[in-house]
Amino acid sequence: MRCPKCGGQDDKVIDSRASKEGSVIRRRRECLGCTHRFTTYEEIEHEALFVVKRDGRRELFSKDKLLSSVKRACQKRPVAEQAIADAAERVTGEITDKFDREVPSKDLGELVMRELRSLDGVAYVRFASIYREFQEVGEFVEEIHRLATLPPSDKRQMALLPDGYEESDTKDKP
Ligand SMILES: [Zn+2]
Prior knowledge:
Number of strands: 6
Number of domains: 2
Strand order of the largest sheet: 1-2-3
Mean pLDDT: 80
Structural class: alpha+beta
Order of helices and strands: EEEEEHHEHHHHH
Strand content: 15-25%
Helix content: 40-55%
Shape: elongated
Bound molecules: zinc ion
């Protein structure tokens, strides 16, 4: 870094501190020439990631948007705000790991559903039905159907179980 005071190129880092989320690192530096102290910030460069819909339309990926759709699915469900935020964070981390420039909306949806499934059964089914494109996938239609036909007590249980679907599968059998 070039010293803002004397223009010298040599400095030493005297303190490094990561931001709360760890995405920005603040470094306090001291110029070796004139001992002037200054601060630099280092952050991860996020290249634009696009969500590609089935009809080919592309939309800039937005973590806020993802978060609000997870929130919408969990509305009035006993899911902690933090658990929702963590789920959105995990999905974002995973798609930025796996995909470079574009992520098919189907893959994004599947990751969200995996998270919702472990959070809340009802939220999961809500999400699956909102994202109509997944309804063609047989297993989701089946699960939505099964949830709709279950007696109320089973519905309550499913909502409480983290992975209620398999559980109810075995229970349903005579
Ligand atoms: Zn200097």
